[in-house]
Amino acid sequence: MAVESSGASVAERVRAVIDAHRDDRGALLPILHGIQAEFGYIAAEVIPVLAAELNISRADVHGVVTFYTDFRSEPAGAATVKLCRAEACQSVGAEQVVADTEQVFGIELGQTTPDGSVTLDQVFCLGNCALGPAAQVNGRLYGRINRSRLVDILANAETRAASPTENGAGS
Ligand code: FES
Fold first, then answer.
1. Which one of 13, 16, 80, 142 has the minimum C-beta count within 10 Å?
2. Which residues are noted in the entry as [2Fe-2S] cluster-binding (predicted)?
């Protein structure tokens, strides 16, 4: 399999996730979330394993993976940027932030830069509506995003101390 292995074989890690959720109602979704948490994405090679283990067709698994935008079929970049496009953020310029960000990085939403440094995704409400436009960078929440602020956040993403939010109230 193309997915990265550490310690236990990839197949063993896949089966461990399956076994943890096999008896869940509608097991496929929690299993896929578990696989993505384990490997960072749903590799194509995992799909036939899931189909065989759950006794469903490969097409069914593939259909679910491609239907839900939360599931990734390729590894994400070093930084994952999720831009909010829900109504409250749209009303304060989220679409311009999306356009600017796509221009800065030369990719569209759902894509990763060729050097693997940044993945852009959309999200619909991060619970930070009062401080929109909102974004999440590597799981950390930011408010009042604009082009220059986002570039600055990404430039400093690796050196900032981890904390759950930075809403830019003073910027
Ligand atoms: S609408 Fe963007 S955070 Fe709620």
1. 16
2. 84, 89, 125, 129
